[in-house]
Specification:
Blueprint: H1 2-18, H2 24-51, H3 58-85, H4 87-93, H5 97-130, H6 132-138, H7 141-159, H8 177-180, H9 183-218, H10 226-266, H11 273-285, H12 288-300, H13 302-311
Helix pairs in contact: 2-3, 2-12, 2-13, 3-4, 3-5, 3-7, 3-12, 5-6, 5-7, 5-9, 5-10, 9-10, 10-11, 10-12, 12-13
């Protein structure tokens, strides 16, 4: 009896170690590389917005809010990496319910904030180019700040539900969303609503592309006003950001939907390790767009580029009239 008890205790002690895979180190390295790139660049974005009045506009408030959400996701993914890809982290979260739930819920908050902010940016762009006079009359910084405050309250309220009871956490289970959240909450609420927002953003941006193409045909480049040129350049920049977002999110969305809804009949003998590798890497690829977005702003917007250089106390390169046509952007 004592021998069998000792064997069981020994197996329990070894369980977290057996959950560690050799390829986890690759996931951790990727997380650290993305953080080295993304954390300073998103902090630079927010500091530049605060210091330079030329950046303070309704659209740029949304861009900075996106930067804040990306920064939050980048910092939280480090905690998630430690909790899920190290022996100490696995042992800790298997016994600490609320730390595990807090980590999962805040990661979802970062994901949702990026997603809904992209929806807000898409609505902002389509209003600005399709209804420019209405946009100029109605949209201002105060309105955007109020709407963003309501959005954050809405997201925090809904994504806190697992912490207050809507969970399936059990001691000894790895801290992943599929293990600690109820299936109806994860699939029918979070994933389904995220998919609907992704679909809405996609349709809206296809609509935006059509509007931009039609307006450029009706109004040749030489006849465009400076304001229209700036709006078109800003819209093209946001289309690049949205495209990168989809590129980073699609792998995770597809793999998660397959594993949550079809695991039993697709993998009756258990999920192959190759699929698990893809699943784990797809989670951290999601944050890649958050690390790259500030570089896109600097690349496509001369206003952001100059503000970044001034914030870093770097010399500002003078541009010619020909190359600086969009300097109001």
């Amino acid at each position: 009896m004592e021998a069998s008890t000792a064997a069981i205790e020994g197996a329990a002690d070894e369980q977290p170690v057996s959950l560690i895979k050799d390829w986890y180190i690759g996931v951790l390295i990727y997380i650290y590389i993305i953080n080295i790139i993304g954390v300073p660049s998103n902090i630079l974005l927010m500091v530049a917005y605060i210091k330079h009045p030329e950046l303070q506009s309704p659209t740029n408030i949304l861009i900075v809010n996106q930067g804040f959400a990306d920064l939050m996701s980048l910092l939280l993914i480090q905690l998630y990496g430690w909790l899920n890809y190290t022996t100490a982290g696995l042992e800790f979260t298997m016994q600490n319910k609320y730390l595990c739930l807090f980590c999962v819920c805040t990661l979802f908050l970062g994901a949702w904030s990026s997603l809904f902010n992209l929806l807000a940016l898409s609505i902002d762009r389509i209003t600005a180019i399709q209804f420019p006079f209405l946009y100029a009359r109605v949209v201002n910084e105060l309105l955007v700040k109020k709407l963003l405050t309501l959005l954050w309250i809405f997201m925090i309220s809904l994504l806190s539900l697992p912490i207050f009871g809507l969970n399936t956490w059990r001691p000894g289970i790895p801290c992943t969303s599929s293990n600690v959240l109820r299936k109806e909450y994860l699939v029918n609420f979070f994933l389904l609503s995220s998919f609907l927002v992704l679909l809405t953003v996609a349709v809206t941006n296809i609509w935006i592309c059509g509007i931009v193409i039609n307006k450029r045909r009706v109004q040749p480049s030489g006849e465009e006003t400076q304001q229209n040129k700036s709006q078109f350049k800003l819209t093209k920049m946001m289309l690049i950001v949205v495209g990168l977002f989809y590129l980073c999110w699609l792998p995770y969305t597809i793999v998660t939907l397959i594993l949550v809804t079809s695991r039993s009949w697709l993998f009756p003998g258990g999920v192959p390790e190759g699929v698990m590798v893809i699943n784990e890497f797809s989670k951290v690829v999601v944050i890649t767009n958050g690390a790259i977005n500030p570089a896109i702003y600097a690349w496509k917007s001369s206003t952001f580029r100059r503000a970044f250089r001034k914030t870093l106390h770097l010399p500002i390169q003078e541009v010619s009239v020909a190359s600086g046509a969009g300097r109001n952007l």
